[in-house]
Design brief:
Elements lengths: L16 H8 L3 E4 L2 E12 L12 H9 L5 E6 L3 E8 L6 E12 L1 H8 L11 H8 L19 E4 L7 E4 L13 E4 L17
Antiparallel strand pairs: 1-2, 1-6, 2-5, 2-8, 3-4, 4-5, 7-8
Length: about 200
């Protein structure tokens, strides 16, 4: 584990995808003048997970093969929302971690303008909202979030957060619906779906 205040390095992402998804809760995501504390993630494994893009998209398998650990995997969902993921590679299980929700910290007025919303809990409480609030788009696919190539205004900083992290099923998928691979800060107002409230298969 990195010390509080330190930028996460590639080694953080060279572990099991479930471990990384769990430990990203409480980390501060910095993105081009905005930041927020990650309060919810989902893990997707490269192997034996039919809900992962690598099960059906050759481009996703190529991304995992060629990109370094910690690279941003950005894709368009439902033709409307850009979703932000992080590549995990080199541990027990490779995979992708979807960053589902943030507690906004910096750049809040920018987030409000992009979202057209005022309430803090409306800004980043879901992966589509988060992408919109941060101004993420397809051109950001492959951005290195760790290592020497990391842009100076992007990265992940370790925080000292004394939160209980709960596990739950993933949201909005039709395959592997029973995998308890969603991780969220307990009773946090900025998560997308409260613990135990996911409609399975919906």
């Amino acid at each position: 584990m990195s010390r509080p205040g330190a930028w996460l390095g590639r080694d953080f992402f060279k572990r099991d995808v479930l471990t990384v998804a769990h430990e990203l809760v409480g980390v501060e995501l910095h993105w081009r003048g905005c930041s927020g504390i990650i309060v919810e993630t989902e893990a997707y494994a490269v192997e034996a997970d039919p809900a992962c893009h690598t099960a059906s998209r050759p481009s996703a398998r190529e991304f995992v093969e060629k990109q370094p650990p910690g690279a941003a995997y950005v894709y368009l969902n439902y033709g409307m929302y850009w979703l932000f993921n992080l590549l995990v590679k080199g541990g027990v299980r490779d995979g992708l971690v979807l960053v589902r929700a943030l507690e906004p910290l910096r750049g809040v007025e920018q987030m409000r303008a992009r979202r057209g919303k005022q309430k803090l809990t409306d800004l980043c409480s879901g992966p589509g909202k988060l992408g919109m609030a941060l101004g993420i788009h397809g051109g950001h696919h492959g951005t290195p979030m760790t290592g020497a190539g990391r842009p100076p205004d992007c990265g992940l900083r370790q925080r000292s957060m004394d939160w209980q992290v709960l596990t739950d099923v993933r949201v909005g998928i039709s395959q592997a619906v029973d995998f308890p691979w969603r991780f969220l800060a307990a009773d946090h107002p900025h998560v997308s779906v409260p613990h135990g409230r996911v409609k399975v298969g919906g």
